[in-house]
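Lecture notes, continued. The same structure-token format from the folding unit now serves as the input rather than the output. Read the line below as a description of shape only.
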């Protein structure tokens, strides 16, 4: 990934929580390391970033220094073999919250490319309100096309108005949700509860073993939301290997320091008209690896 006017980075993988290389022999590992260093020299990158669920990289690229960032977690839920069993495992308060949007007249629908405009209507508005550049419409179109039967899109409607949306990916025995949003003015109707419950029910009834709620910072509202479903935190380790420097620049390892300048950028982004935010966001987002 290369940011304009800056040296690039090799990241495994951008926009994902975990990735990293896999080897089944020392010989293949050595070939990988050799080819990686060759590629770094060829495209002139300054670092390699390995996103991993384990605290060690599992291999060593030369004598280059490594800094590990580990203040984020992903939330995992072990699933029973049916949605009925899953629902019974929840406390009465959570079951009541799941029923609320039904009583309020909301409905859940599955969709695909035919519902992408509705999805993007909700997703882009929410991203602007969060002060974050949004992926392009074409990005999501490509996801739906590429993953075929390994992707599902779900939406929650109030009448004809989409009020919540999400996309899940089906990876081996796990259902993971990389993208989800709601329209803030409808949050009092709890559309998020309907959205997530339908995804969880689909995963349980479909024979999947785990539901991956995605990345969060402990203590934040998204962390608490995922924890109420029974999601358990698993630490994420993002290993930054410096290629150009003898010493790794000090990496701020707390969310507060990492986000020191974000508040100003977020405030300004929220003030943009939606059409401007969508147009600029689709150009900027590809340079943001999160």
């Amino acid at each position: 990934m290369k940011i304009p006017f800056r040296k690039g980075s090799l990241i495994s993988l951008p926009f994902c929580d975990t990735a990293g290389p896999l080897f089944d022999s020392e010989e293949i590992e050595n070939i990988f390391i050799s080819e990686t260093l060759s590629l770094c020299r060829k495209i002139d990158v300054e670092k390699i970033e390995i996103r991993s669920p384990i605290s060690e990289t599992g291999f060593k690229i030369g004598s280059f220094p490594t800094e590990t960032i580990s203040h984020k977690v992903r939330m995992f839920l072990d699933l029973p073999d049916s949605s009925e069993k899953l629902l019974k495992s929840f406390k009465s308060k959570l079951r009541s919250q799941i029923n609320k949007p039904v009583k309020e007249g909301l409905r859940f629908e599955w969709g695909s490319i035919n519902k992408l405009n509705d999805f993007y209507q909700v997703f882009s508005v929410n991203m602007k309100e969060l002060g974050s550049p949004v992926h392009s419409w074409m990005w999501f179109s490509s996801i739906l096309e590429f993953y075929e039967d390994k992707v599902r899109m779900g939406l929650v409607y109030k009448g004809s108005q989409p009020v919540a949306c999400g996309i899940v990916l089906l990876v081996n025995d796990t259902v993971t949700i990389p993208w989800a949003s709601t329209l803030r003015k409808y949050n009092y109707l709890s559309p998020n509860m309907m959205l997530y419950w339908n995804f969880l029910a689909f995963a349980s009834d479909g024979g999947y073993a785990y539901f991956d709620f995605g990345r969060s910072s402990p203590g934040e509202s998204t962390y608490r939301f995922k924890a109420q479903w029974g999601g358990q935190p698993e630490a994420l380790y993002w290993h930054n290997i410096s290629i150009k420097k003898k010493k790794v620049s000090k990496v701020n390892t707390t969310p507060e320091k990492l986000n020191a300048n974000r508040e100003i950028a977020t405030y300004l982004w929220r003030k943009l008209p939606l059409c401007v935010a969508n147009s600029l966001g689709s150009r900027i987002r590809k340079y943001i690896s999160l």
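Point for the exam: The two ends are 12 Å apart (CA to CA).
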